[in-house]
Design a protein that fits this description.
26% of the residues lie in helices and 25% in strands. With 680 residues, the protein is of the alpha+beta class. Strand 5 and strand 6 form a beta hairpin.
């Protein structure tokens, strides 16, 4: 689409009752990012109240019409996705504005390939709009959904704001109060902002708050007709209920000895066969989804499922030719008298999906008017590289979406809810804890990506004896397996930390997934290396992983920028002090301007003499430092102790827990403060 153009969604697809909007961008450095927001506007072009403004701290509408799904890895790096159930949008809402903003002095001009996409309920991409001319702006309206009679249309907007999200929000009737103004007013009152915040909102100080890009944040709007006048300070409406988060420390057990095993809701010791594991895993997951709405929405909202009453079923018999088919499970969601139905096919351990089986379920779903088929295995799906090939009969008016979930992603969502974000009540927290215990048990068969594939050994041998040639299809298979592994590493690390961990795709590597993987495969044939980068919220740089198949070494590293103030000797001394508990074999390298690298050495050697990191030439400018750990990698293609997958997992985990956690966090973004009511 071009700027200013519009299109009716019904002209693009028959399945636009719910849509997925994606906002994406690429960063040359791998570190640039922005935060998305959504505003629901009435016929006057204004929000009805602050509850019509959705952002990181208010991500879900009570009626299910809007849900911010967060970042999802894509072929281009990552994409912020938003689910809209257009059938649930209140009738008085005339327009839905989709925007994004950057923090502080960051500008959208520092990003590349700024874009918005829209897909229908079947997951089929309907449109794409590339946003240009955003060099100096800090906030952008990407596009808007709006009503025309009984149908919804989309308009490509591409409007920028140099005043950030504050200016954008003000235009749409959100009352805001700048932090600077609040601080000045506090000074006149003889109090500071922190005291006012505590008086206005008794929330505990340790409550986790995500770092924000908001430069000014909405205050409660005054109801129409209410007279303006002095009022007691009140806090901004809290967007989340009280959460239940499981304690990190385990209470002392009442068991007499270690031989006593705690009773579990979902026992796994009786599982003897793959069939038993598949049936049990399906039943356990679907049962918990039906009872814990916040968890089921996390899993099904990206697939276009509405927010409503959910029921789940297992081993359902459905007619198909001469013999009925029995999918592993069925999910049904009812909203306003309408049903959304998905068939579920699961696999555990290393079992692969069968194309003919999935094809049969797609055909059944199409004939019966179901919306989706969901496959659930230990494998990780990649964009442009489906796990199974199915044929879609385009002559059929009813479209069926084929979606995939990894067991690692299910585990990640459960971890995020019960360990970091919290759920609505203790019973839901306990159910998720029991589910998590089941999924992580060695006998469940739900352990995520576990095999680098049949091409792994031939490729390693070809690299060792220098017979692997560019264009070899086996190298491409290894690159795809490596990408799946990195995405799983991100899920596991993110679940443990409660932070977003995403693979980085730099803009210079291209945006077409097949072309990019072919280039990486050719590079593997030339130098025998697999490389990846991870961006983890709260860390000062990008975590790089380099697997050298020729030397059998894994290198994990991070580059941190030099401080803007102070003296170089003070920098290196402080860095060495911060790394007091880091491994002695940590390699530290000084990065200098205009050269490949500066002084280097192990932490063990540098601890008594930090000045050894300084360049010999006093005129050389230090730009930063690179920290690296080396580890021997496993050679096996599986996840055993000697396997490659296990060694990569362990290397990333060790580097983060022993090195990265000791580094200074990046400058904190302003978090939403508690604002006073303003007039008008």
């Amino acid at each position: 689409m071009i700027k200013g153009s519009n299109v009716a969604l019904a002209d693009l697809s028959d399945s636009v009752g719910s849509v997925i909007v994606g906002l994406g961008w690429a960063s040359p450095t791998g570190e640039g990012d922005a935060d998305v927001s959504v505003l629901l506007l009435d016929a006057n072009g204004k929000v009805r109240s602050d509850s019509d403004f959705y952002f990181y701290n208010h991500p879900v509408a009570v009626d299910g019409s809007v849900q911010l799904l967060g970042k999802t890895p894509t072929a281009d790096g990552s994409e912020d996705r938003i689910s809209f159930d257009l059938t649930a949008v209140p009738s008085e809402i005339d327009r839905i504005v989709v925007a994004a903003s950057r923090y502080g002095k960051a500008r959208f001009g520092e990003l590349e390939d700024v874009r918005i996409t829209l897909a229908d309920a079947a997951g089929e991409s309907l449109l794409r709009f590339a946003v240009d001319d955003v060099g100096s702006v800090t906030a952008v309206i990407f596009g808007e959904l709006y009503r025309r009679g009984e149908e919804w249309k989309f308009r490509a907007v591409g409007q920028g704001y140099e005043t950030g999200l504050a200016g954008l929000a003000t235009d749409f009737g959100v009352d805001i109060e700048d932090d600077a103004a609040a601080e000045a007013e506090s000074a006149l009152d003889g109090t500071d902002g922190e005291e006012q915040t505590e008086a206005a909102d008794p929330a505990p100080a340790e409550e986790p708050t995500r770092q924000a890009t908001l430069e000014a944040i909405p205050a409660p709007r005054r109801p129409e007709g209410e007279a303006a006048g002095p009022k007691e300070p009140v806090s901004r409406p809290r967007t989340s209920k009280k959460k239940v988060i499981l304690p990190k420390t385990v209470k002392k057990t009442l068991a007499e000895n270690d031989a006593w095993k705690r009773a579990r809701l979902f026992p796994v010791s009786v599982l003897k066969s793959d069939r038993d594991r598949e049936m049990r895993a399906t039943s356990v997951l679907l049962a918990v989804m039906a009872q814990v709405p916040e968890f089921s929405r996390r899993l099904t909202a990206p697939f276009g499922a509405p927010a409503g009453r959910m029921e789940t079923f297992t081993e359902v018999s459905l007619p198909h030719g001469d013999s009925p088919r029995r999918p592993d499970g069925v999910i049904r969601v009812e909203r306003a008298g309408k049903l959304w139905t998905a068939l579920v096919e699961t696999k555990t351990n290393g079992n692969a999906l069968k194309a003919d089986q999935v094809q049969a379920y797609m055909d059944i779903a199409a004939r019966r008017g179901y919306e989706a088929v969901i496959t659930l295995t230990n494998d990780v799906a990649l964009e442009g590289s489906p796990l199974v090939d199915v044929k879609i009969d385009k002559r059929r008016k009813h479209k069926v979406a084929l979606w995939h979930l990894s067991w690692a992603e299910v585990t990640y969502q459960a971890q995020m809810l019960i360990r970091h974000e919290g759920v609505g009540n203790a019973a839901h927290a306990w159910l998720l804890q029991e589910l998590l215990h089941y999924l992580q048990h060695e006998n469940s068969g739900c352990h995520g990506f576990q095999n680098m594939g049949p091409a792994w050994v031939p490729v390693r041998n070809g690299i060792d004896d220098e017979t692997l040639c560019q264009g070899d299809g086996r190298a491409l298979e290894v690159v795809e397996s490596w990408e799946r592994l990195i995405r799983q590493v991100c899920l596991r690390l993110g679940g443990e930390l409660g932070q977003k961990a995403l693979p980085v795709q730099r803009a210079k590597r291209g945006t077409d997934p097949k072309e990019r993987r072919n280039l990486l495969a050719d590079q593997l044939c030339l130098d025998g290396r697999l490389q990846a980068e991870l961006r983890i919220d709260g860390t000062p740089g990008v975590l790089a992983v380099n697997a050298d198949l020729r030397t059998g070494k894994l290198r994990t590293s991070i580059e941190i920028p030099a401080p803007e103030q102070g003296y170089p000797l003070s920098w290196v001394k402080r860095l060495v002090r911060r790394l007091a508990e880091a491994p002695a074999d940590l390699h530290v390298e000084t990065l200098v301007d205009g050269e490949a690298g500066g002084s280097r050495g192990t932490l063990e050697r540098l601890r008594p003499e930090p000045a050894d990191l300084l360049p010999k030439d006093n005129g050389t400018r230090i730009t930063g430092f690179r920290l690296s750990l080396l580890k021997t990698m496993g050679s096996g293609r599986g996840n055993a102790e000697s396997g490659f997958i296990r060694s990569v997992d362990d290397a990333v985990h060790r580097f983060h827990t022993t090195v990265v956690v000791h580094l200074d966090a990046p400058p904190a973004r302003q978090a939403p403060s508690k604002e006073r009511t303003t007039a008008g």
